[in-house]
Amino acid sequence: MSTQTAPALVLKSGPEAKAFLAEVDAMAATQVEACYQCGKCSGGCPLSYAMDYQPRQIMRLVQMGLREEALRSRTIWICATCYTCTARCPRDIDIAGVMDALRVKALRRGLRPAERNVGVFHQVFLDYVRCLGRSYELGLMLVYKLRTLRLTEDLLLGLKMFKRGKLAVRPEASRGRDEVLAIFREAAAGDAGAAAGGATGGTGAEAAGPAGGTRSGEAKGGGAR
Amino acid sequence: MTEEPLRYAYYPGCSLHSTAREYDLSMKVVARAAGVELLEIPDWNCCGASSAHVTDPFLGFALPGRVLALAEEMGLDVVAPCAACYGRLAAAREEAARHPDYVRRLEKATGRRLSGSSRVWNVLEWLSQERVSAAVREALKRPLEGLAVAPYYGCLLVRPPKVTRFDDPERPVTMDRILETIGAVPVDFAFKTECCGASLGISRTDLVSELSGRILAAAADAGAEAVAVACPLCQTNLDSRQEAAGLRQGRTFDLPVYYITQLVGLALGASARELGLGRHLVDAMSLLREKKLA
Known about the structure:
By secondary structure, chain A is mainly alpha-helical.
């Protein structure tokens, strides 16, 4: 028997609810409407204990068109994409793929990730890849620490790793970095198109929202600001 | 008898040039001993890891997609030792078949062609194929007798099964068999494919300590003296968070976390130095000395 606190949520119905479901289905190439709430995903999720909504509940939010609750959840940023849910779903829903779709939609909306540090990590990681064509672990850790002001956390561990030669001091650039930059530009251009398309798609939901103050075309913008 | 040597496009990925250099070193030691040529993909780029696919679907496809295109130019299959890189490359190959528009955009941005002709191999598939495992068996110099090792597969070697199409997603055995081949004792345990927390290792260290602690506890309780992994993220989390994980579990762990290629290299007679065994945070040498294996 379900003991969910559904009354706190404002239920939507009709085209708006259906539009959100359809958008998520299309992005994740799956069918969230097939979920019958068995809970196998939540039972197997190693991180469900740290989530605000269980994976099963996220599926329900999407089915009911509760866009805000889904996109502002911590769950989508706690999910480590281990694919246990996807591998086990008896309805063959790509649940981890749905989490990806929700994260992408949240960033395109300019929403700041509910788990701010996770968002900052992804952004700093990608900033290095964009510049160098490769990631740079030492730089990633330093910039992440400055941006999140978590300066002392792991300081000792970092020193130990450094002493063992685990952190390369010099960044390594790929000679293919121009092509990598072109890939980033193409991604941003595509995002701008997707955001505009969403706005004319009837809901207006993917247009640059006022919430984060970021332009929707900047895929990586949501994480940091 | 002159057989064509096995030849692969080698994609080390970023970690194998930094935190996981011992994985790179031991991979090359094993390849040399097994007579396999690894040709590093020239000008390779980062696969984007988790950060790309959680940010933008095209970016998540195109970064590994470019690496696949480079391997195709070499006319070779790719071997990717890092489980996360492997997962991203294998996923990109699947997506290329489903998203002709993504392929078009990638080709436009990079001026390269992607047809999906190069297959992607993870390190366990690569090690367990007949020719490599036969060569290892033949060259065995120092079987790891009496060493009880928990084979930890983690997530991305076996999931999502539609992408990896490798072993059993719940109860894989490939690494168990490899450990048997080199004379070690694989320890069966319940957390073989549970997640270590992966890229949350920097942003939510508390979660990674908890998840890694559960895995280490299951391995220790099953009688393992060490853990074997095939992923730099798994290694870093289980190794560097071991102390914190012990605090959360109310116990002390002392489980060295080896890359599977380090153990194979050791059995093939390579030195601790060649295999980078001094680079671990949890002392990786004492146990081996105690067992007279190093």
